[in-house]
Amino acid sequence: MNADRMMDICMLAGEIMLTYGAETYRVEETLERMAKSAGFKNVHSFVTTTGIFLSFDVEGNDVMQMIRVDDRMQDLNKVSLVNQLSREFVSGLLDGDEAYKKLEEIAKAPMNYSPWLLHIASGVAGGAFSYLFGGNLFDTIPAFIAGFAASFSVVALQEYMKVKFFAEFMSAFLGGAVAILLVLLGLGENLDQVIIGTLMPLVPGVPLTNAVRDLMSGDLIAGVSRGAEAVITALSIATGIALAIALLL
Amino acid sequence: MIVELIFCFMATVAFGVIFNVPYKVIWLGGLIGSVAWFIYSTLPNWDISVIFATAIASLVSATISHFLAKRYRVPVTTFSIPGIIPLVPGSRAYFTMLAFVDGNYIEGLQLGIETMLQAGAIAAGLVFALSVFSFGKGGIGQRYESRRS
Question: Domain residue spans in chain A?
Answer without folding.
Answer: 3-108, 115-248
